[in-house]
Amino acid sequence: MLNYQEIIETIASDLKGVKDKGTVASYIPELSKIDPNKFGIHLVDAHMNRFSAGDAEELFSIQSISKVLSLAKCFALVGDSIWQRINVEPSGDPFNHLALLEFENGIPRNPLINAGAIVVADILVSNLENPKAQFLDFIRQITNDDSIAFNEKVADSEKKTGYHNIAAANLLKSYGNLKNDVDEVLDFYFHQCAIEMNCRQLANAFYLFMNHGKCQSGKTHLNINQVKRINALMLTCGFYDEAGDFAFEVGLPGKSGVGGGIAAVLPDKFAVVTWSPGLNRKGNSKLGMQALEKLTTKTSQSIF
Amino acid sequence: MLNYQEIIETIASDLKGVKDKGTVASYIPELSKIDPNKFGIHLVDAHMNRFSAGDAEELFSIQSISKVLSLAKCFALVGDSIWQRINVEPSGDPFNHLALLEFENGIPRNPLINAGAIVVADILVSNLENPKAQFLDFIRQITNDDSIAFNEKVADSEKKTGYHNIAAANLLKSYGNLKNDVDEVLDFYFHQCAIEMNCRQLANAFYLFMNHGKCQSGKTHLNINQVKRINALMLTCGFYDEAGDFAFEVGLPGKSGVGGGIAAVLPDKFAVVTWSPGLNRKGNSKLGMQALEKLTTKTSQSIF
Amino acid sequence: MLNYQEIIETIASDLKGVKDKGTVASYIPELSKIDPNKFGIHLVDAHMNRFSAGDAEELFSIQSISKVLSLAKCFALVGDSIWQRINVEPSGDPFNHLALLEFENGIPRNPLINAGAIVVADILVSNLENPKAQFLDFIRQITNDDSIAFNEKVADSEKKTGYHNIAAANLLKSYGNLKNDVDEVLDFYFHQCAIEMNCRQLANAFYLFMNHGKCQSGKTHLNINQVKRINALMLTCGFYDEAGDFAFEVGLPGKSGVGGGIAAVLPDKFAVVTWSPGLNRKGNSKLGMQALEKLTTKTSQSIF
Amino acid sequence: MLNYQEIIETIASDLKGVKDKGTVASYIPELSKIDPNKFGIHLVDAHMNRFSAGDAEELFSIQSISKVLSLAKCFALVGDSIWQRINVEPSGDPFNHLALLEFENGIPRNPLINAGAIVVADILVSNLENPKAQFLDFIRQITNDDSIAFNEKVADSEKKTGYHNIAAANLLKSYGNLKNDVDEVLDFYFHQCAIEMNCRQLANAFYLFMNHGKCQSGKTHLNINQVKRINALMLTCGFYDEAGDFAFEVGLPGKSGVGGGIAAVLPDKFAVVTWSPGLNRKGNSKLGMQALEKLTTKTSQSIF
Questions:
Q1: A47, A67, A205, C269: which has the fewest C-beta neighbours closer than 10 Å?
Q2: B9 is in an annotated binding site
């Protein structure tokens, strides 16, 4: 039987020596202050055995990883009607390109790029009475952890500098693919990105994606078909224009965020989260990707 | 335990009634003559139990499905040096676009689009004494079936009308990413596409991709890491600009060809091949995609 | 000697019979109410002889034609430093594409597409104490006509529905190519587009572009090199992705607006303005383009 | 009255001191051997007065400048039917991009990019008994100079390395926009590019474009409308993705070639040709562009 604890400790110790840890994201001022030497990893297996190494208890900004969680909430709420407003193909392009949106007449290429996640946010704003609170409740519920919260300073920092997202939302509006007020939708979106969690909490949240839709407390949030689709989207679209490379090197459905986190799952086996704030040139956590490549290589486990 | 035979028979009978079976490819004259009502499916499980329905014994032109087999042969021959000349990202574009090739200075986006497969062909021509014969031998070996052969009429038909591929090869040459003579490489490429197999033979060939690199006669052709990578490429790039949709609906690594075939695998579980000559607007077998979606939905099995 | 009066009357009467007059712009609600049968033309020659036909005295919204006037004011104010923030190449693309802006890192392709004109507006806002009033003054001065004014209803209508321009301005801001507050710049931009003039007034305004920078009252606003450059930009970029066609058919530097106006000049010879609210599929006045093609063909006059 | 001789001598002497003369084209081996210090200029005015400076009598490869001459021959032969197979818009893109051709389904953006000129060549091959000889005759006739000839070594050099043009021709063929055999059309095309002329001969050839279609011996080759259109195409499309810049800085219709030549005209006034083999990064003669900018600035003459 695999000794996950030993494996992730070896990985953590191997990566300590890596000199080029990537570059901490600077475009959100609040995020630029993080220590680039932080590294955490947490793996929870199907039987809820837990394995940790490094800074796995330290909170970080989940940023784009939140897109998978908002998609899950949205899919559970409204079902397949989402796909009338968002496509499901990989973008093959950096994460913030509006070009695709124009070429495709306001239909985002997939729900894990910014434009797609803004449409998901719009659907949630349309369907929830109190969108921010109810979305946070959802995350607290699937993690069974009421301590999880927004970092208002980060949300505020994004609002003040998020011109690219404001551009995307207005472009969606110009195509009729944003139903609510631009500011209201972006307020929700900037908050979802500004949720803080640690590796353990995030691995708990992603447990449902490796467990056919059931969270750790046994409640079913998504059916098996919906989980298949969300995992497929993570695999084909979860790493911007490096999605192919992640599938190729790691072989797990996953999602990265510019806060340095990566969450990934091996269905029926485990959910795993890494955190290392330095990003590679494509905007994904440099050491996080290496850690997960080592994990699937050392364990000979992947979806392939 | 799952009754695959019953399931695929139900699928075959359900699909018989579908009126819009798509459009048979017309750009290769030899292929345009096929009866659009043909439908075959063959599944071989990990224990080499076999399940068939419909026209599973009828030969068809494997076309682009051959790209997975030439990639396998090439990867086994030269290892990771392939990736200096070909990228591993989904194209998000129709299968014959040269635009990407220009934007990316002659490095094909992945080995499963035409330009990438032509570079793979170039590497094989460089590394094999008798490329066509040796590639055919490889296929005969992994299927344990010496009856498999090129259809020379189809190869000839492609050579006479394959202006787009001639353009791609010359463009690669202009970027220095084609080492051999254009005509020689294309002669190999047109032949690999013109191999004829039936659903059973092709499922036998793909057995090694679900069996960690070992073919049915027990010989190891690829290591576990190489198989992970080829399966990842099938999942992210196997269906042109419909790759996301196939992952999303079906959830299996697979590859389609304009001859109407689709080969797919569920690692450790099965290899499956469908054949239905009518294509959808994106160039993939219309009923084949539906059959595989039904298979993974009815069995609740997929890589996700 | 050419009898301009006879020629433009013939043109006006010939065009009266044309059945397909194009489609009145509907995306700005205030503009959608205009009668599509309106047609006016006014030509002023180098000696200030004037020739009119049709509805040449009726006010219309000059819209994008204002981009030439704001560029002139800006060029006169700050000189060649404009070209550090805006390029001078034709876009070969529809008038509202943000894609180019991304591909070119926030440097608009030229000052006559929306993104470029928004940067021009930003420069004016930076350099004028009272931007809207002073820009209007400039137009009143070069036309010697104090009756010219903004239509506040149109400006307001654009502000409420101008999501695409809001997107463009925020995208410019995200690249650091917009120095002032987005709302302030757009308020100026929506007002400059909402200026109302008739064919005669607009021909008076464009007189300076055919007269080497000197307006009708003899004041020099631009030097000969600046006028060469503005005329070159009109010729290569004045008609969105139909610029080549306008140069080819008409052979004059000119600029169109979605209000249905077109202003054009033949250096040393004349300035001419047409107005017909119906647009062709590329967003340019359908009959206006035909009228000007007839004018240069009948007179055998063009810059070529 | 302007003293053209003095002006061009000053220009030639001013440019002698410029250190960075650009880079001689290396992709056609035969052209890479040219001395980068060569500089010639020849201007012929409407009255056939001639003004020369520098190496104006030295032969060079006219390359893409030939596209204007083949277009003229083709337009004279078949009239407006050309425009069913070629568009008239600027490309806004480097001179060898196939991407546009794909996006626009095999219709080249204009006749002055390679793909467009290959379609022009195809039309000439279809309509001339002896295409190469008859095209050379046309050039000998409009220049009244029988010494003009192909450089077979250059033609051969291009044939052996012209993979990008072979790609373009095959792509056109795949869209049905090339009627003759690919090799036959390219043989013509490589020969037209390989014509050698000196500045004086080329200025003589372009005299007809400033003289409403009449060559120096008084024969009318094109009507006034056709000349307007060819000049418009030179202005909007004659310098690849630097066309806007040339219009903006120089203000004349013109065409460059990678051999280092530029031919330009001021209708009713003059035809001028410069030759300096060093190219800028956009593939246009570096000193040639500067010389023409100085010419129109010093003379205050341009079409604008």
A1: A47
A2: no
